[in-house]
Amino acid sequence: MLRVEQVCKSYGSRQILRSINLACAPGAYMLRGPNGIGKSTLLRVLAGVTPPDSGAVWIDNHALHEQPVEAKLRLAYAPDECPIYPFITGSELLAFVAHAKRCQLTPQVRAVVERFGLDGHLATRCGDMSLGTQKKLMLAAAWIGDPSVLLLDEPSNGLDLDAHAVLVDLLREKSANAVVFVSSHDQAFAQAVGAQVVAFESLQADR
Ligand SMILES: Nc1ncnc2c1ncn2[C@@H]1O[C@H](COP(=O)(O)OP(=O)(O)OP(=O)(O)O)[C@@H](O)[C@H]1O
């Protein structure tokens, strides 16, 4: 469902990703490693946001470099920061993502919105939302299009206790039939989700 072969990425003279290989069947995975080692870089490459220098990524057997649209329709990516247009409302953001994913907002997505307690915020401009509310909106948007691969960078950051518990339940449910690949420093969160820990260093060719 998620396959990575020989992925390399450098910034200037510094090689961050060294021949990364990875194959994930449906389930929850927590990418762990020290600050600055390259976890976010790897997630950006897996999401097709940052092109690798070499190597390839497959999402549901669609190679990101050969069939980027087909591959991206099957994945969802939520970065740690919230790159949301400040002038659109919560509803408009969800509609925008659904349009980009060529799908409708299903009852399942509306249930995720409701479980995060977002219904009362949908008419609010994103720029007027708190950071935690923006984060919940962005996470809820990751359910749009029923992706087979979810790439979430520090998803529990900034969430209150209720939202944290909702996220744990949602990820447990989603990981039954999708790859949930999460970067996090939060060991308790990974345990609650039932995630398999993946040490970043173990993926590097020269370990
Ligand atoms: N666009 C970029 N240009 C140059 N260097 C970058 C760029 N993006 C990231 N880096 C560098 O690559 C290294 C890995 O960064 P990355 O954000 O992937 O680490 P991380 O493991 O996610 O860290 P953290 O746990 O702190 O979030 C860092 O040294 C960072 O400064």
UniProtKB/TrEMBL annotation:
Short name of one Pfam family: ABC_tran
Keyword presence, tRNA-binding: no
SMART domains (UniProt xref): AAA
Class of this enzyme: hydrolase
Gene3D superfamilies attached to this UniProt entry: P-loop containing nucleotide triphosphate hydrolases
Keyword terms of this UniProt record: ATP-binding, Cell membrane, Hydrolase, Membrane, Nucleotide-binding, Transport
EC code: 3.6.3.-
Database matches in InterPro entries: AAA+_ATPase (IPR003593), ABC_transporter-like_ATP-bd (IPR003439), ABC_Transporter_VariousFunc (IPR051782), P-loop_NTPase (IPR027417)
Key word Protease present: no
ABC transporter domain: residues covered: 2-205
GO molecular function, one term: ATP binding
Protein name listed in UniProt: Putative ABC transporter ATP-binding protein YxlF
Organism name: Duganella phyllosphaerae
